[in-house]
Amino acid sequence: MFRPVQIFTDWLVYGLAGLGRHTLAGSAVDFFVFESIKIFILLAVIIYSVSVLRTFLPPSKVRDIILKKSRFSAHLWAAGLGILTPFCTCSAIPLFLGFVQTGIPLGVTFSFLVASPMINEVALVMLLGMFSFKIALIYAASGFTIAVISGLVIGRLNLEHLLEGFDQSKRITNAVLGADMPWAERRAYAREYTLDIVGKIWPYVLIGIGAGAGIHGYVPQDLLARWAGPDKWYAVPVAAAVGIPLYSNAAGVIPLVSALTEKGVALGTTLAFMMAVTGLSFPEFMILRRVMKLRLLLIFFGVVGAGIVFTGFLFNFIMR
Fold first, then answer.
1. Which of 71, 90, 153, 267 stands 20 to 30 A from 32 (CA)?
2. Residues 220-278: pLDDT tens digits?
3. What percent helix, strand, coil does the chain show, rounded to 5?
4. If you count DSSP H runs as helices and E runs as strands, how many of each does the chain have, helices first?
5. pLDDT tens digits for 81-140?
């Protein structure tokens, strides 16, 4: 899908700019240009598409369905919805904001936000092909569990007052949405909403991708293999910490996971790295900072990070 973007990026970076294809600077700049174009395309397309679909199904209906469930089952439904929507982190955030604006409890929306980028059918198929059905199943179960438990913990803390950037009293209702809405109004609504969201978050996206590009270009791939061997007790938390500044979806990071595993890094350590890359990326932090106070962000990253580290240790113990 993004092959034309990669061709254009290679021409721009290695042809027009004249950077060496195998140099650290060339690799970093290529990553920055490609990921920037790709993310903004995904943001525009997905936000616009979701906005159009939202005009057919008023968010209050989704809210009513989830709110009719018990506290625990609502988190299960939200995490399940996250698995069925294979979005990267930056693309899942607009849906997260929409859920918050409909009045769905904050903890439930966090269950969706964690599950969506971390678990999807592409990741499961690639894990199945590169490892085994057992590994793919355990990964799916652990990611789902992290999403549900993280949402439950954050929900218990009653942190809605730490949201910012939009008026929580202005809930989305059925007033302007529904099956009778003309197509011209649907497109106008989606276009305005897309421009508004992208216009607010673009600086944060570029800052996050820039940080990821620096890590991508200048940190050797075998760094984790040297410092995160199976005999190192600190391997899992180090892998998770190194994964956070990097931005990628599961399909992009799984080949690296496979390579690190072949170099001797324990499977639980590499999966902790993968979960951190897909579920706790630095671009996500920068975008969420636009709508959350720092305390809420740190709590969210802390709870999810603890779950990832625990899962890494568990995998390493099981796979001995």
1. 267
2. 656 656 666 667 778 889 888 888 777 665 555 666 677 677 667 788 888 888 888 87
3. 75, 0, 25
4. 15, 0
5. 777 664 555 556 666 777 777 778 889 888 888 887 677 655 676 677 667 788 888 888
